[in-house]
Amino acid sequence: MSGNGLLTGKKGVIFGALNDSSIAWKIAEAVHREGGQFILSNAPVAKRLGGLDELADKTGAEIIWADATSADDLDALFERAKELYGGVDFIVHSIGMGLNVRKNRPYEDLNYEWYKKSLDISAMSLHRAVHSADGTGALKDGASIVALTYIGAQRTFSKYSEMGDAKALLESIVRSYGYRLGKRGIRINSISQSPTITTAGSGIAGFDAMFQFAERIAPMGNADAASCADYTVAMLSDLTRMVTMQNLFHDGGFSTMGISDELIADLAEVYSKGE
Ligand SMILES: NC(=O)c1ccc[n+]([C@@H]2O[C@H](COP(=O)([O-])OP(=O)(O)OC[C@H]3O[C@@H](n4cnc5c(N)ncnc54)[C@H](O)[C@@H]3O)[C@@H](O)[C@H]2O)c1
């Protein structure tokens, strides 16, 4: 797709690009295509994976390593954004980590230290980032903030476990902060994305089944990371300037469906074998 200059003159921070399958990676490419400039940020532990330099080179971005659970790291990041750009017109939060999920610890027997860490990384970090952008004076009036989320916030997906709680908190922060920022024309929304094959996605046991289930139910099939990136561009652009405090489903229609003919046919076949 060629760019339309939708983000020309806009400057911001994109959190969470790890490798070229990351949703944030595709978002960075799309924002760059549309004329936006940005700092790329990820946790210092991601440094050793070494993929981010390539994206930074391609998009003319600066990399600032920051643990999204550290107020000091975030303040340093937004101070740098102020120095570089005078402030930020957008923030993309594409961060998630479920420690119990990763370590196959069942929901009924959560390790609470890991649970706290999962909520801190996956949800409270949005609050921290906005708080830090505001506190350092980097957050410009009229800015747009987008966080990535999943329908596991509203419905129970058994294997999504603690991450459902984290996403529910994340989406609540979107509403609570949205109210407080609205008077300055700053908006904040979450995009609820289809299952997408990425490092975080694949870390969930049963991810392939969740992916295939959604693929068969959504009339348009699962939305991929590149289309999510285009939607994010729309949400960062002035075209959506009056949209705030929303959880926006980007899922090919999955969230409105019950069951589809395709899944009925598949299930009929599976169950007939058992007869
Ligand atoms: N993949 C999916 O199926 C899917 C579906 C819906 C929503 N999402 C959401 O999209 C977002 C991006 O995930 P992804 O699927 O692109 O996977 P990803 O693994 O590429 O991205 C997750 C990112 O979070 C970063 N991160 C983890 N701990 C951090 C910390 N302490 N500080 C800063 N960054 C930290 C990781 O380094 C990584 O870059 C997440 O919020 C995820 O929950 C993913």
Detailed description of the structure:
The structure is a single chain. The chain has 275 residues and is of the alpha/beta class. It has one domain: Rossmann fold, CATH 3.40.50. Helices cover 44% and strands 16% of the residues. The chain is built from 10 helices and 7 strands. The protein has helices spanning 23-33, 52-59, 71-85, 99-102, 112-135, 162-181, 199-202, 207-217, 225-236, 261-273; strands spanning 11-15, 37-42, 62-65, 88-93, 139-149, 187-193, 247-250. It has a 7-stranded parallel beta sheet with strand order 3-2-1-4-5-6-7, sandwiched between helices. The protein is globular. Residues 16, 18, 22-24, 42-43, 46, 67-69, 94-97, 121, 148-150, 193, 195-196, 198-201 line the site of nicotinamide-adenine-dinucleotide. The site of nicotinamide-adenine-dinucleotide has 26 residues, from α1, β5 and α7.
Question: What would you say about this model in short?
Answer:
The protein has 275 residues and is an alpha/beta fold.
Structural class by sheet pairing and helices: alpha/beta
**How do the strands line up in the largest sheet?**
3-2-1-4-5-6-7
Rg from C-alpha positions?
19 Å
The gross shape turns out to be globular
Beginning-to-end CA distance, first to last residue: 50 Å
